[in-house]
Amino acid sequence: MTSNSAGGAPSTPKIERVMDEHGLVDMGERLEERWLGTGETDQYSTRQLADYVNKEILRSAIDASDTFTLSGDVEEVYSALTDDEDTGATLVKSRLEQSGIDVEAVTDDFISHQTVHRYLKRNRGVERPQQSPEEKLESAAETIQQLRGRTTAVTEQKIRDLENSGAISVGDFSVLNDIQIICERCGRSHDAPSFFEQGGCDCSAE
C-alpha cells in the first residue's frame, strides 16, 4: 500500500474512500465474489466491476437527492454520463443538477478498471484462478451475447428517443444485430457465439 507524501500513515485507496463516502457496504466482498465468480455469482471482468461500482455510486447520489423519477433508470443515466456519443447526455446532466446533484463530483468519484484490479490484488490479496480453455471459450461466447444484447437495447432506446423528440418518424421496427466472423482461409461465415463454442473454424482441422 502506498504512503502519503509526508511519509506518515498509509493513504486510503480512492476506491475505499468512495465506498465509504457513498455507503457502499460490503462492496469489497461483492467485488471479490464477482471477480472470482464464487457461489451463484457470474465472473466479472475488471471493466464490468468498475461499471458495477460506478453505477452504485450514481445510485447512491440519486437516492440521496430529489431525483426519484430517475432512481429506476441508473443504467440509462450512467450511459449518458459515460458515453461521449449519447445524444441525451446534456438533458440528463441538467436534470441531475436541477435536483441538487453535483454531476462533476459524482463522475470524479467513478473508478477505472485498473483501479479495481490494483485494489483486488494489492489491498485484498485476491488472485484470480486461471481459466481452463473450455471456460475461456464459454466466457467469450457469453460476453459477446451480453454485448450484442446491450447494443440492441441501446439502439432500440435511441430510436424511440429520436421518434419521441420528432427527429425521425418510424412505425413498428426490429433491430437486427448479427455479429459474423468470416474465416479468411476457407471463406466460411460463423455466428460469433457459435464460433467460440465450437472452438474456431472447422477448416483448421481439415
List the defining traits of the structure above:
disordered N terminus; 9 helices; flat; mainly alpha; single chain; two-stranded antiparallel ribbon; 2 domains; 206 residues
Describe the structure concisely.
This protein has helices at 14-21, 27-36, 46-63, 74-82, 89-98, 103-109, 113-123, 133-164, 192-197; strands spanning 180-182, 189-191. The protein has 206 residues and is mainly α. Mean pLDDT is 84; it is low at 1-6.
Give the overall silhouette: flat
What's the number of domains? 2
User: What's the tally of helices?
Assistant: 9
Please state how the strands of the largest beta sheet are arranged side by side. 1-2
Distance between the termini: 53 Å
Category from helices, strands and their pairing: mainly alpha
Q: Which percent bin holds the helix content? A: 40-55%
Poorly predicted parts: 1-6
Oligomer: single chain
**Averaging pLDDT over every residue, what do you get?**
84
Strand content: under 5%
Alpha-carbon Rg, integer: 21 Å
How would a crystallographer describe the biggest sheet? 2 strands, antiparallel
What's the count of strands? 2
Order of helices and strands: HHHHHHHHEEH
How does this structure look, described?
The protein has 206 residues and is mostly helical. It folds into 2 domains: 1-129, no CATH class; 133-206, no CATH class. It is 54% helix and 3% strand. A two-stranded antiparallel sheet has the order 1-2. α3 packs across α4 (74-82). The radius of gyration is 21 Å and the shape is flat. The chain starts with 13 loop residues before the first helix and ends in a 9-residue tail after the last helix.
